[in-house]
Structure formats: C-alpha cells, structure tokens
Amino acid sequence: MQTEKYTLSPPSLEELASALRAPLSSNFEHATVDVVQCADLRDAPFHLATEGLSGNERIADVGGQPNLFPTPRLDTIWSMKEIAKAMEMDYSKGSLIGAGAGPFHQVGRNCELVPNFSWEGGMENINNQSYIAQIAGGTGAPGVQKSPSLDCALMINLYGSSGNPGPVLKITARKRKGAEKSFTECIRKALNTAFGESRTVSLGGAFLVKSGRARYHIMPDFPPADDLPFSSAKQLNDWLTYHDFDGPVVCLSVLHSADPDKKMGLRMEHSHGFSATKADAGGHYHYDMDGHNEDIEYEGYFNVANFIYRIAKPEVTLERDLHD
C-alpha cells in the first residue's frame, strides 16, 4: 500500500486535559476531563474487542471521500489486516477501532462500518466485534449487525494500539448549553485552539451517547449509473439517509486538531456508532439534537497517537469534509 508516515510530538495527557476543561465546560453545563486508568472497554456498555487503548498508539487515514464523490470508486477495497501491517502494528498483539465504509462487495450493498477488532498470538487469531449499519432494500429501514469480514472500502479512519490498559483521557459531558452540537467537534476545535495549526494532536477512542438523542447518517446503496456522477456536495448529502436515535449508542472515533503541513488530506473527525441492544441504531455520528440538549450525556475514553499513516491517499483531496 502507498503509505506516508508522519511522526507526531503529542502533549502529555495532563496537558491535553488542561486544554480541554474550559472549552467543554463552556459548551456543557456539566463536564469533566481527567487522566484515569482506562476502564475495561470489553465490558458493557462499550463492548469493544480490546481492554484498553494503550501501547504503540497510532492512527491511519486510508482512502478518502474522493473515492465516493463525484463517482464511487468500487475498486477501492482493503483488508484491515493489511492496513494493520501498513501501520507497522505489532503482529503478536493489537487492536483497531474507528469509522469507515463497509464491505459492500460482501454485504451486497453499500454500508457504514464500525471497525472493532483485536488479535493476540498472531493476526490469525482475530476477535472481530465490528458492526455495519445499512439501509434495507425495499423497506428503507436502518439496521445494524455484525460485520461479516475484516474488509473495508472507499475510506476508513483507524486508531491502532496494543489494546493494553493504561492512562487515558476520560471525558464526560452533560446538558449542552453552547452552540457546538457535536461532542467530538467540541474536543477537536478546543485542541486546535490550544495547539494551533503547527502542532497536530491526534486522538482515538470510544465514547458513549449515554442518554438523549443524536443524529446519524447511513449511506444507502450506491445510486444507479444514470444518476452519477454526484454534481455537488448538496446532492451527495441529500442522497444520504438521516436518522435520530436515542442513547445508549457506542461511537468509535478518530480526530485531529490540524492537518500536518496541510498536505496529508486528512479527514479531521470521523465517528461511527452502534448499539448492542437496539437493532436499528447506529451509523455516522453527527451531533445531538436541539430540543434534546437538556437530556444529552456523553462518556468517552481517548488516547493520543504518536504516528499518522496516510494510506492510499487519493490523487485529489478535499478542502473540507463533504458531510460535517
């Protein structure tokens, strides 16, 4: 795989916590940011394939939105095991979580992917707890189920680690009072303000929408050839299906405060969610809903990456996300 590696100089978790406290408190009536020993994320309500988020921390941005817009490139399919190798992950133990496009070639239709898998004793010993969210043909109803494979397509953002327990950022927020409706964008913008465009801070982790209602999108199946190419970002966004789900929903997330040298064409934030208890709730997380901001509550665990791997970068990259 064509791969660029960028070495980061991340602040300490204590510095990050200090930078995040005031912005989170400005946006939510109740917010805490602490450095703690990570909870066992294999347990409910998170249901991850890995215990923690520590060891060999790194992030990959693979493909990108130009593989969907203006015309879907159906040849952009990857094995996440091969991506792990390109990320120089430890063969003996590791995990990947994040957000991306699912294995349409195996599912039979376009879908959202919530990658969530680990390995120990070699990459042949995979514990795959990944989910897909898709729109059913005929009914148009959303559905969430376990992914049939470790393949992905079009674009994916991954946080990789050894999956060990260790210190992490624990961020809680309740009752939004500010204008920033996205939990992860609130974090990302706060990091950008604190560290600027010249120092990239990249986080990966999991957060729970504990209560309240949030908006998600799920890509439907690819449009027929006669309806392509997409002529504008608005047409693409109108093609997406939007859904409002009540918590609890688990979201896996990758975010960057800035794009190093503005040359990597990074997706600045990407979060996908699933519910282990509701068969329809999941997809690409956007934000909590006005009218429900009194009810919204988040709990998240994040760690900071030491490296970014830009893999299979499209020849043309976008100035901003097509759907924020």
TrEMBL record:
Highest taxon, organism lineage: Eukaryota
One GO cellular component term: nucleus
Compartmental location: Nucleus
UniProt xrefs under SUPFAM superfamilies: AF0104/ALDC/Ptd012-like
Annotated InterPro entries: C11orf54_DUF1907 (IPR015021)
Keywords: Hydrolase, Metal-binding, Nucleus, Zinc
MF-aspect GO terms: hydrolase activity, acting on ester bonds; zinc ion binding
DUF1907 domain segment(s): 19-311
Keyword Cytoplasm attributed: no
Quaternary structure note: Monomer.
Protein name: DUF1907-domain-containing protein
Species whose genome carries this gene: Aaosphaeria arxii CBS 175.79
